[in-house]
Amino acid sequence: MKNLGLIVFGIGIMWANAMQASSLPVYLDNGRPVEERIEDALSRMTLQEKIGLLHAQSKFSSRGVPRLGIPELWTTDGPHGIRPEVLWDEWNQAGWSNDSCVAFPALTCLAATWNPAMSSLYGHSIGEEARYRNKSVLLGPGVNIYRTPLNGRNFEYMGEDPYLAARMVVPYIKGVQSNGVATCVKHYALNNQEYNRHTTNVTVDDRTLYEIYLPAFKAAVTEGGTWTIMGAYNLYNNEHACHNQKLLNDILKKEWQFDGAVISDWGGTHDTMQAIKNGLDLEFGSWTNGLSEGSKNAYDSYYLADPYIKLINSGALGTTELDDKCRRILRLIFRTAMNPNRPFGSLCSDSHYEAARRIGDEGIVLLRNEGEILPIKKAEGTAPRILVVGENAIKMMTVGGGSSSLKVQREVSPLDGIRSAAKEIGATVEYARGYVGDVNGEYNGVTSGQNLKDSRSAKELIAEAVNMARDADYVIFVGGLNKSNHQDCEGSDRKSYSLPYHQNDVIEALSKANRNLIVVNVSGNAVEMPWVKKVPGIIQAWYLGSEAGNSIADVIFGKVNPSGKLPFSFPLSLNDNGAHSMGQYPGIKRNKENVWDEEYREGILVGYRWHDTKRIKPLFAFGHGLSYTSFMIGDASVDKKEITQSDSITITVPVTNTGVIPGAEVVQLYIADPVCSVTRPTKELKGFEKVYLQPGETRHVSFTVGIDALSYFDSDSHQWKAEPGEFKAMLGNSSDKIASTVSFVLKK
Ligand code: BGC
């Protein structure tokens, strides 16, 4: 009897559950297919509610549908850490005390690891931070191609090569999105400078667009499966990129079948009809055009707000576009904020600091190491005296630079990192300022808390450093750029290619005072190095985030054997760069219009494609980076001598660690098409692999490439084409160090 009672009770519960499940509206039922839920939600929404989905309700959020329990959508910058909370309707800080984050290395550093596993680690880790902070959309990563070393925002991007950027962006996206947080890949497209970023109208031929500027975005969509994309500020074909028929409708949504949402850059929307028709889905930050910043109900005045409702109510427009936009945004919300399976995330965890340090360690590039000055080691019975010089040794770099600015839980400065590593080998460390750059340490109300003021003259600072340098065993100069305006910073470009703040004078003077000079260049851009031959040790250290000092010290003292490779070329002088040599940067002002036209006249010859093809030797080549061990790349072989259009070919090459310590080498595959009816670059990157090798160890690295790797984009037929004939596969460890070349033939 007792049992019967239990059975009846159990059946009762099951029945109640079933009733509850069936009474759940379809859009809330996680068991139903997403597309069905989208249609159901849409069918329940009023016009006002649909429009409410399409635009911001605060600086970083949009409304959702409160009546239906469809939550707000919260976005955050991106791309190197999670931005601190700002006030509802202002850029200033909300003053929370639980919004400090881990700063990961800048994306130039990530690209310099040439290691997709590091991208995956980065994406997972930053995604966890975003998720813990309850964000649904991470505004990043950025994959605009590095066209000129003056672009203030290059540090947020992944270098000059479309193949490298494409391979590196995909794991980042997957890592972030595995947390139920969307990436917002930016800035689509052709946002290659900050100068006049809202008014530059880019003209570029289709071949260049498809071969150079689009592949990383395409990979982000078709392979990474990004759930959102951010439109860029600039114009292309006389239409703003945020509502651009060709970029958004024809290419992104039609050719690549993107099913996610297009989000405008903040203030990047300029026209209601274009925004409706030309592919924009979600409008943010339209403080411009007469809407005063923060004024009451300004959000309702957005281009995709009241003006859109008026057009529909007046009968001028139907709701086809509106419904499509809503579907995309609902899909985004179901994938993120309403995803019941997303993990909870974590913030400032040990594993995030470890990830930041590992990525920094792998991304630092050893540019020069004459006489093996590095790593610094303790010789028997000595205690090396080290002098550190330069503002960047002490300046916090996570504050500043624009929207990527952060409030970090901690940041290890290069000086502190060097000090603690030096202690381990019994070395002493002294510090001299050397130069005063920018002492400002504030962005949108976040302050570094550092007082860097120093009123001494340049002459006095140099004299002090030189005096101290004479007594040192090693001098480590830590300089470069910083995150202030006209350096590596959003909203403006650099004013010149050379190092600012008289740093060249400091370096020249130090090189005369002490031969054991090491320069650590902290920047997201190439810089001119007129002193290069006088400095035996040069390290490219990027912006490394929370663990900056530790990663730099890891490399300087040899705890880590450097394995980073440059993701962009360092030209000797600015004019050796294609965009500057062919000259329309920064654009030509139109008569009586606030538009600056800029034709990308160098076409496909961007970065090393320019240096190689025009035979202009760079200061440091794309792909370059030294190690504390040595490697030998042997003779490459192919599995067949001839291939057809539908075939693939496998190229194999042995690589050996010929030194005495373990290390990693990046084997790079470039393809060349020596005879073709159209201009082709001398060679193009089509494969790479980072290989970890013990001393004496050899591994065979294989690359399988198909017709894609041999093709160029033919604008006339709007198709990729490969012309039959001989191709070359070139293998090396830098674009200027090819160790082995093999030929094969593409048959008719
Ligand atoms: C930047 C974006 C950023 C947005 C929100 C814009 O000014 O261009 O990259 O995500 O602001 O902060």
Describe the structure.
By secondary structure, this protein is of the alpha/beta class. It folds into four domains: 1-32; 35-335, Glycoside hydrolase, family 3, N-terminal domain (TIM Barrel, Alpha-Beta Barrel), CATH 3.20.20.300; 364-560, Glycoside hydrolase family 3 C-terminal domain (Rossmann fold); 630-746, Sandwich (Immunoglobulin-like). Strands 1-2-3-4-6-9 form a six-stranded mixed sheet. The longest helix is centred in the N-terminal third of the chain and has 22 residues, at 2-23. The model has no long low-confidence stretch (mean pLDDT 95).
Write the layout of secondary structure elements.
Elements: H1 2-23, H2 34-44, H3 47-53, E1 61-62, E2 73-76, H4 107-112, H5 116-132, E3 137-138, H6 162-177, E4 182-188, E5 200-203, H7 206-213, H8 215-222, E6 228-231, E7 235-236, E8 239-240, H9 245-255, E9 261-263, H10 272-277, H11 306-313, H12 320-335, H13 350-363, E10 365-369, E11 385-389, H14 414-424, E12 428-432, E13 442-443, E14 446-447, H15 458-470, E15 474-480, H16 503-513, E16 517-522, E17 537-540, H17 548-556, H18 578-581, E18 588-589, E19 596-599, H19 608-613, E20 631-633, E21 637-638, E22 642-643, E23 648-657, E24 663-672, E25 684-693, E26 698-706, E27 712-714, E28 719-721, E29 725-734, E30 737-746
Parallel strand pairs: 2-3, 3-4, 4-6, 5-7, 5-19, 6-9, 11-12, 11-15, 15-16, 16-17, 22-30
Antiparallel strand pairs: 1-2, 7-8, 10-17, 13-14, 18-19, 20-23, 21-23, 23-26, 24-25, 24-29, 27-28, 29-30
Bound molecules: beta-D-glucopyranose.
